[in-house]
Design goal:
Layout lengths: L3 H25 L5 H20 L4 H24 L7 H9 L4 H20 L1 H8 L6 H28 L20 H19 L7 H13 L2 H4 L3 H4 L3 H7 L11
Length: about 260
């Protein structure tokens, strides 16, 4: 039985947090911190579901550990990466296209939209926490997929940060390490994390939560991920055209000659 009132409570918790983020954006005149809030939206939903079910089953405990490590790591990384007074160019463009009164429109265009997406994406967490079934081999397999994706994404972020920290690399293209096998290994790792969460939910009987990893995959490939980043990057970095020809966009593979 799906407890829709508990699932809806997750939306309420996320929405309240998003509202607080919007108020902060008014004081800062900057909405970039919503990136840091994204993973916390999802982590908050998991803890909200747990509080309503009043129990820590083995599957719930497993899911909470995994989602906590993922959410905290991603939020800290994005906060550190965006730690400056300037608004990210993506949001600056959204602001430009939605003036006048972007301060008001940002409530639903930025914070409201991301809160709603985070709630939908949290579906496997809800399904796993709601389940009363015993742990089985699919849970362990799903956990391995989450951990593998987490490590892949973390290593890719670290390699990119190290590359960008060197002034001699300005304007150049990172094509070593994990970035030799995929142009977006961090997004591939993130995709694996969500398919891993779904496998755990599936192990508990929540097969219907497949909308979450499918949505995340589409977002990473077609909306806020690969397509958005590569929209004009070849114009800014001439080397990127050759990088595209020899390197897979998403799924890792050996470079083409």
């Amino acid at each position: 039985m799906i407890h829709w009132h508990i699932y809806s409570a997750g939306l309420m918790a996320i929405s309240l947090f998003a509202f607080c983020g919007w108020l902060i954006s008014l004081a800062r005149d900057n909405v970039t911190h919503v990136d840091s809030m994204w993973s916390l939206f999802i982590g908050m939903s998991a803890y909200t579901y747990t509080l309503f079910f009043f129990e820590l089953s083995p599957r719930t405990t497993l899911m909470l550990w995994l989602v906590t490590f993922w959410a905290v790591r991603l939020s800290v990384y994005l906060t550190w990466r965006n730690w400056n007074p300037h608004e990210d160019h993506r949001y600056a463009e959204i602001r430009k296209n939605n003036e006048p009164h972007f301060w008001l429109k940002s409530f639903y265009i930025v914070f409201g939209l991301q809160a709603a997406l985070a709630w939908i994406v949290s579906m496997p967490l809800f399904g796993a926490i709601e389940s009363k079934a015993a742990l089985n081999q699919w849970d362990y397999f799903g956990a391995l997929v989450v951990i593998a994706g987490f490590l892949w994404e973390s290593i890719a972020d670290w390699q990119l940060t190290t590359f960008k920290s060197k002034t001699t690399n300005q304007g150049k293209v990172l094509d070593t390490g994990l970035w030799r096998y995929s142009r977006h290994p961090n997004y591939f790792g993130e995709c694996c994390v969500w398919w891993g969460f779904y496998i755990i939910a599936y192990a508990g009987g929540a097969w219907w939560s497949i909308i979450s990893p499918v949505l995340m995959t589409l977002l990473l490939l077609k909306v806020s991920g690969v397509s958005l980043l590569e929209k004009d990057i070849a114009d800014r970095r001439p080397e990127y055209a050759g990088y595209i020809k020899r390197t897979n966009a998403f799924i890792p593979g050996y470079p083409k000659q």
